Amino acid sequence: MRPYPSWELENGLFGKPVVGVDEVGRGAVAGPLLVCAVRFHSSPEVKWRDSKQMSPLQRKSVFANIVESSCFGIGLAAPWDIDRFGISFCLKQAAEEALAEIPLDDAIVVFDGKRPLTTEVPDYQCVVKGDVLLPSVAAASVVAKVIRDELMVCLDSLLPGYEFSAHKGYGTKTHLEAIRCFGITAQHRRSFLRRVLEQALF
């Protein structure tokens, strides 16, 4: 298991408050895209990792600790907006929506990965594997994942048969078979499904 993300590394790299930003749901074929921005009030003991390295139970166990020690913002893009405007535009809009809820004047915004989701911020930097190395970015990944997963559980109760609570909208075999049986809903990204269904089913 990798070590926990490090405040020492985060503080040493930037020397100023950090707003960590990460997204979840980029590659899903159903459900929203969600971007989260997190700014900590202090430096609590880090008991979280990149959300992909944690089980659902582990993510939920640290969620309260993260949100109690920080201010955070959430931005969402609906499936129909992704179809209409494209994933890149929606990532930018969702990131700006999330960041609008966070004070940025004395902070640096740190995006996970090689490219910023938006450049419409006073100061930013991109860090490859930021969600593994930096507590603020890892926390954003956890908060984003927990909230989006809960939204997909709610969709499961509204649209039974698709098993959204199990696959969270990603293009699993079970999900694609459900689409084949029950059809495409308003929660599906038609622009994504066209390619996936052609490859997987036809």
How would you explain this protein's 3D organization?
This protein is of the alpha/beta class. 47% of the residues lie in helices and 16% in strands. It is built from 9 helices and 5 strands; from the N terminus they run αββαβααββααααα. It starts with 6 loop residues before the first helix and ends with a helix.
Primary descriptors:
202 residues; 5-stranded mixed beta sheet; 16% strand; alpha/beta
Total beta-strand segments: 5
What does the radius of gyration come to?
Answer: 17 Å
What is the overall pLDDT average? 94
Biggest sheet, strands in spatial order? 3-2-1-4-5
Strand coverage percent: 15-25%
- The amount of helix comes to 40-55%
Q: What is the chain-wise order of helices and strands?
A: HEEHEHHEEHHHHH
Largest sheet: 5 strands, mixed
Instruction: List low-pLDDT spans.
Output: none
Indicate the overall shape: globular
Number of distinct helices = 9
Secondary-structure class: alpha/beta
Could you tell me how far the N terminus lies from the C terminus, measured between alpha carbons in angstroms? 40 Å
Entry summary:
The chain is α/β, with parallel strands linked by helices and 202 residues long. It contains nine helices and five strands.
